Amino acid sequence: MSFESFLAAQSFFLWSTFIIAVVLGVVVNKTNFCTMGAVSDLVNMGDSGRLRAWVLAATVALIGVVILEVLGRVDLSSTLPPYRGSEFQWGRYILGGFLFGIGMTFASGCGNKTLIRIGGGNIKSLLVFAVIAVIAYYMVDPFKELPSTWYQTYFSPWLGAASISLNTPQDMGSIVGNWFGVSDVTMRIILGIVVAAIALRYIFKSSDFRKSGDNIFAGVAIGLLVLLAWYFTSNTAVATDDGTMKLTQFYGEWDMMMESEEGKPKNGSTNLQAQSFTFISPIGQVFGYVGSSLESAFLTFGVVSVFGVILGSLIWTLITRSFRIEWFNSFKDFYMHMIGAVLMGFGGVLGLGCTVGQAITGVSTLAVGSFLVFISIVFGSALTMKIQYYKMVYEEEATFMKSLLSSLVDMKLLPSGMRKLDAI
Length: 424
Known about the structure:
The chain is built from 20 helices and five strands. By secondary structure, it is mainly alpha-helical. The chain has one domain (2-418). The strands form two sheets. Strands 1-4-5 form a three-stranded mixed β-sheet. A two-stranded antiparallel sheet has the order 2-3. Strand 4 (237-240) and strand 5 (243-246) form a beta hairpin. The longest helix is centred in the C-terminal third of the chain and has 27 residues, at 368-394. It starts with a strand and ends in a 14-residue tail after the last helix.
């Protein structure tokens, strides 16, 4: 997709993202696709339907990425965030995912669900959004306007030690291919097929899931929408006298290609890279965009995707007449949501993504870090739900430590002799 001017190419880049995001908002709202709800269903009711839909979305996106890479239609060697970066930051993946899992449980939903609920009239989620926005902005500095970020100041000095520098990108194909002297493309095909086959066997092994039209539709549709975003952001280019140039390449040569700074986006070398849906850092970008008095230079994939999902959700609630204003029902409800928002803001940035950004978009690249974040999010959320349930059932008898130990026993991470409360 080549355009005669940078402005036309950038416009397509943003409008295509917005339209896909609107569809995403409609699909997620219609099907009640919710990653926190998926963990809750599994932990509290033993129902794996929505979890399988989550895995199906990641699997569809993964299969699509493998096919497009083989055909040379996408290049995910340099993305935002850097899923396949050679710096394997295992410490921030685990900590970020774990904090995010706790946070989304306290806040009644992940970043994507927060946007869906805002579109449905939920004022609680609007405040959650505001807290995440401030934290994500100062943690990331998406427009390079701060002297330093909170991550650089407070986290990098010690989390940097929990990092491994690889001599290859961190996706499975590159790592395993390097071991056996096989090209990364070939190994991505092999491992992509293996991972997808294992995932699909797990997903469709359940007869209940095979009968669940909404869950199957959600998984397939969301996976395809993630893939579509990868495709458009990877292939939008500008036709010049010297040949076709990707947006980031054109941006890097702006002074030679353009006569003035007019129309130049903020931090385009990063924000114009190939990318797909993730929602914590983009919520921070919205904070920067609003703070700029809505300057067009601050419009990014992330900003328009956030607005698109909210609009899509709003459209569906209006169609179904389910729009309703919802407020906190108690002060405890308020501060639990605020704590959850803080944890999601920090956790989503530390983990380089959320339940969609890492567990679907990131997994589609076969990045090892994305799988690690996925597991950490599920563990953090499941553990929090179990502790909450023990404290609700046993009330004063269930101290935090007793609930924690009993929950870990339930999850088979501690021997049964360490149980402090009867199993529920």
